[in-house]
Design brief:
Layout lengths: L2 H14 L8 E5 L4 H12 L3 E8 L5 H14 L2 E4 L26 H8 L8 E2 L4 H15 L13 E2 L7 H10 L14 H16 L3 H12 L3 H8 L4 E7 L2 E6 L2 E6 L2 E2 L3 E4 L2 E5 L5 E4 L13 H7 L4 H4 L3 E5 L2 E5 L3 E2 L7 E5 L1
Parallel strand pairs: 1-2, 1-4, 2-3, 4-5
Antiparallel strand pairs: 6-7, 7-8, 9-12, 10-11, 11-16, 12-13, 13-14, 14-15
Length: 347
């Protein structure tokens, strides 16, 4: 293992995906395992302002205590108690009713929420690797039918700098750098442990490229919950602002992308169209179902139908609007008072 080569790869990934500002501060969420120990050491060696945090769930008795002691003594981690955190408390019984048997322990999702509930005002990094990504994609395909993966950067300020590094590489790095690390005896009993132990070896027998193919799915399949909801439904009409001036639109079983409203100042290019106007307060946007020409009862859809514009071309056709009112359908119609005030030509 070339420790410098792995550090360079991590640094390139951080810069490429803008995960941590150069020389910036970051809190490593550490368990004591090889992945988070590698992350803590690599970021420190790269010159970031690294601190460490260990959330002690206390689920494995003396082993959990040793994990916490290791993180505190070896990694300088702040150890916080995750056993009584909100989200895992359960009722033991009610007054006048015999208490039920001890409730089941917290789920993996609950434990994850607890870990991410600390230091929320700071940038936090976790040791998720490419190996975790493969397991996650496979799990989500089976449980939801969608190949979602682990996000490199979450909206709540959690980043994953090791997503281009395999688990065996973090272990080799720790050994090469002389870093001890802890082994979690409960891992084989988790969902991830089952996938790692039972499913992936069989898939690799089927095709040695299984891991690489699942990683490609992760890059293509990580979408926001809001976009997933828009894509999955076929009822009514829904719009979603994707940022960067792009809007995803679903109308029943059809989905398309359109640009958001663009102020009509100077000249606006919209596909093959070049649109100009001396009027102030105008914008250019795409057609929406239900649009009508200002001052008229006529629907823009009827304008398209009368002009024999194919439905496949309507979503890309520009409209000139003032507020919510359509004042021109370039090349086809203008609202009263706007005749000749909007110039629109195609290349």
């Amino acid at each position: 293992m070339e420790v410098e080569e792995l550090r360079d790869r991590v640094e390139r990934s951080i810069r490429r995906h803008a995960l941590i500002p150069p020389g910036g501060d970051v809190v490593c969420l550490v368990s004591g395992g090889a992945d988070s120990t590698c992350l803590w050491h690599v970021l420190t060696e790269l010159g970031y302002g690294v601190s460490a945090l260990h959330v002690d769930h206390g689920l494995r008795g003396a082993e959990s205590d040793e994990d916490a002691r290791f993180c505190r003594d070896r990694l300088g981690a702040e150890v916080v108690d995750g056993r009584g955190a909100p989200g895992i408390a359960r009722d033991a019984g009610m007054e006048g009713v015999a208490a039920s048997p001890a409730p089941p322990g917290p789920t993996e999702d609950e434990l994850r929420r607890i870990r991410y509930s600390f230091e929320t005002d700071r940038l936090r990094a976790t040791g998720h690797t490419a190996s975790d990504q493969v397991e996650t994609v496979l799990y989500r395909i089976v449980t939801s039918g969608a190949p979602g993966g682990i996000e490199r950067r979450r909206e709540d300020g959690v980043v994953r700098p090791l997503l281009d590094v395999r688990r065996e590489e973090t272990e080799a790095y720790c050994e090469a750098a002389g870093l001890p690390f802890r082994l979690d005896s409960s891992n084989p009993d988790t969902k991830r442990g089952f996938i790692r132990r039972e499913l992936l070896p069989r898939l690799r027998e089927l095709d040695p490229r299984a891991d690489a193919n699942l990683l490609r799915l992760a890059e293509r399949g990580t979408i926001s919950p809001a976009l997933a909801e828009l894509l999955e439904s076929e009822v009514g009409t829904k719009r979603l602002d994707l940022g960067g001036g792009k809007v995803a639109v679903r109308e029943y079983d059809r989905v398309w992308l359109e640009r958001g409203p663009v102020p009509l100042k100077g000249e606006v290019r919209w596909g093959p169209w070049r649109i100009r106007s001396g009027e102030g307060g105008l914008k250019v946007r795409g057609w929406r179902a239900g649009d009508r020409l200002a001052g008229r009862k006529r629907k823009v859809q009827d304008v398209f139908v009368d002009a024999k514009i194919p439905r496949s071309e309507r979503e890309a056709w520009p409209l000139v609007v003032r507020g919510d009112e359509v004042v021109a359908v370039p090349g086809l119609a203008e609202a009263p008072g706007y005749e000749g005030k909007i110039e629109a030509v195609t290349d």
